[in-house]
């Protein structure tokens, strides 16, 4: 008897712990009400998932009957759906699954369910995993790869499958429908039989959740793997090699998504090695996957050591190729012209390529934004980019509209995010990193969503006990006032805080190179190092002032923007403060719009960043009654580290720049500790 009690106790404790740890993401188990699911179509693995999700999460009227119908409906695009309080209609099976998740999300977050069509902004919504074949993850801060093993073992265990299933389910719940499962700095080995075997196993697990599998490929694979003498895209033997490889892949994975390619970029081989263009390279691969409906996502992340201004190169190389790409190629463009910095203006390629499918690439993993330590909700950064007006086809030609097919008749539309997922129990290292995965999916589905709504949804679904704490009116109002409102505000302010304490006023790329881009390093410039990899190349600090001159009198990067932006950015009086030192080199005593000098303003921003993080700590401390102990302490510890990091940024940057400004740190700013 005693043993039974102990076992029951241990079981409850285990269940409780499981429910409280961060592994469940925003898909926490709920006490579901009984529901009958009627499927007006033949059964399939995907539909079985949809049914199962409804049964395990239904929060509507007990005993309700919900119908899932596959039916033609002209208002529904791609894998969109039509939702009613007890019905989901779609034209694809994936659409039904997304409809189910939307219905459940609305029930759990208290949003109304009226009759409405939901269509995705982008046809392809993908995560890019920078996972290496040895299981390490480039710019990954949440443990090893969930896909690849260090010991190069190709044995697929039940544990692997369970994990991939949970991963796919999380993706499907926010509408993500593709995963590139290896690093863009691709090893040729990924296309060998062993790795393709494991890729097939992964694809088989992701498929029932509507998630397609893609691979990143190395351009020189025909040489490195195939033993050919060249990888020249116009060489018939090379073309044949890729065609045979595509055939081999599709024989195993009939719905394989296609290839992601980083070529002629950061030392990677590419068509330029053979005097060919990006279009020649991309089109060759596009032809190889075309018979199977595959896609090629060709990255535009290019720059070279000789260029006077790295920010200009992608535009210069790609705009002349507009219209030269096959229609199953999508050019994948990072949000900004340099490299995922805490703040960049949007890449001028958006809207400038009018006859080519162009997709935004965002970085979910926080390479330049505090790794998995700093709490930074990136949704506001992506929202800022998506809402930026390019003016390329008149006012209102936002990055969102220039990439989702609203402005140009793109054949394909897509959005990619560099994943922050690893083997850590909570998937993302920092518990709030999950919010960035969630936000990316939601924005890829609907690029008009506000970050405030996304934060609200995520918090309501993610925090255990939230549902119970909202069970009665009094409890709900307490939970809203003391947890939801302040934590939403914290999240919404967090990205600006990170910009303030690290790279305010348009400063960029001044991070530490020796600590994997964590923390400050504006001084770092070892002899013989490539200038465009060193911070002084970007901040240009001297006795004369600070900032990169990209005006018409400088590198002229400004002219890659459409008017009225080019003129606005070109003039320091009209250039928004947040991009000032991105476009201008200005004297330390330059008069800012606030009336302060540039030096004082800079100091103030750094100081503000530090204060903001300290405030986040206080806000989080007050959230203790509403959060399970495990996550409360974990986030509290991370915020403490972030606070130290913010102080370090401020002190290091102000003391470093002071050598050039020779000005006192203003009194409003706390002295370095
Ligand atoms: C950055 C990052 C690299 C990555 C590259 C890319 O430079 O530091 O790790 O390979 O971006 O996007 O390809």
Structure notes:
α2 packs parallel to α3 (93-109). 39% of the residues lie in helices and 10% in strands. The strands form two sheets. The chain has an eight-stranded parallel beta barrel. Mean pLDDT is 94; it is low at 1-20. With 673 residues, the protein is of the alpha/beta class. The chain has helices at residues 2-20, 45-57, 93-109, 158-173, 193-206, 221-224, 236-252, 278-289, 313-318, 379-387, 399-403, 433-445, 451-462, 466-469, 473-502, 535-539, 565-570, 580-583, 598-622, 629-661; strands spanning 35-39, 64-70, 81-84, 87-90, 116-118, 124-128, 178-180, 212-217, 258-261, 295-299, 329-334, 357-363, 414-418. 52% of the residues are buried. Bound molecules: alpha-D-glucopyranuronic acid. Pfam families: Glyco_hydro_67C (PF07477), Glyco_hydro_67M (PF07488). It comes from Hymenobacter profundi. Residues 428-668 form the Glycosyl hydrolase family 67 C-terminal domain.
